[in-house]
Amino acid sequence: MLVRTLIIVPTHNEAANISEILDRLDEHVPDADFLVIDDASTDDTRAIVTERAKRDTRLRLVTREEKRGLGDAYLHAFQIGLDDGYDAMVEIDADLSHDPAVLPTMLDVAERGIDLVIGSRYVPGGSVIGWPRRRTWLSRWGNRYAAIMLGLAVNDATAGYRVYRADTLQTIGLEGVQAGGYGFQVEMTYRTVRAGLAVVEIPIAFRDRVAGSSKMNRGIVSEAFRLVTYWGLADLLTLRRRGRAYRTPRSST
Ligand SMILES: Nc1nc2c(ncn2[C@@H]2O[C@H](COP(=O)(O)OP(=O)(O)OP(=O)(O)O)[C@@H](O)[C@H]2O)c(=O)[nH]1
Ligand SMILES: [Mg+2]
């Protein structure tokens, strides 16, 4: 049974959103603990969380002085969660794009033994609200490309709303992760699938952020594209090599 859950909220300048997301999480998953991992915010994010943590012992703040990327922040937080013996770890954006009301269902599915539960925009019942058409197109086709290149039967491998069972993270390991942005989510999904673990997608309505500013940039997209292409080609070559190795040697006579 999954008794202890740690909800990880990465932040970089999310003062406009952090109180509301924590309130809403509190409302829907009152038994969980919270870890806000803040990289180099220059607004009031840290002050807000510090003040709140004085009243709420289930909330803790970890700060880093450099903005080291979403993937790096999650790896740091996962290690803390594993060291502290949590059974499940949740990824959720601070910007209210992910609705905490869905989290109890996602945790239920993880509790029933699914190794990775993804809040997915691209399964029936899922949707994206408020994104310009270009951004939806990029995300949709980026996901299709990753699924084809890596042989993933996952529709939303870039999704940032997830529940990992702690044993999943132990099995796939936190060492040697290459990607930092959206590619991080794809890489962790790829590792989970390759380890033969179970992934389930639960439909969500993803809403574009209303407050604060986006941290998405071209570098994040091109990193994901480059790495997915590299992993996919490396897979192909390895298969070919294997194919060659298994071929019956021709007789020399
Ligand atoms: N700790 C940490 N958090 C980050 C970093 N970059 C982004 N975040 C947080 O990660 C979450 C997702 O970032 P967003 O800027 O919302 O990125 P996005 O959802 O891809 O794009 P938009 O919704 O368009 O802004 C938010 O909670 C950010 O504050 C980082 O370098 N370090
Ligand atoms: Mg966002």
Structure, explained:
This protein is an alpha/beta fold and 253 residues long. The chain has a single domain, classed as Spore Coat Polysaccharide Biosynthesis Protein SpsA, Chain A (Alpha-Beta Complex), CATH 3.90.550.10. Helices cover 44% and strands 17% of the residues. The chain is built from 8 helices and 9 strands. The chain has a 7-stranded mixed sheet with strand order 3-2-1-4-7-5-8, sandwiched between helices. A two-stranded parallel ribbon has the order 6-9. β1, α1 and β2 form a beta-alpha-beta unit. α5 packs parallel to α8 and α7 packs parallel to α8. It is globular. The termini are far apart. Magnesium ion binds next to loops.
Strand order of the largest sheet: 3-2-1-4-7-5-8
In terms of DSSP E residues, the strand content is: 15-25%
Mean pLDDT: 93
Rg, Cα atoms, Å: 19 Å
What kind of sheet is the major sheet? 7 strands, mixed
Name the helicity range: 40-55%
Entry summary:
This protein has 253 residues and is of the alpha/beta class. It has eight helices and nine strands. The structure holds guanosine-5'-triphosphate and magnesium ion.
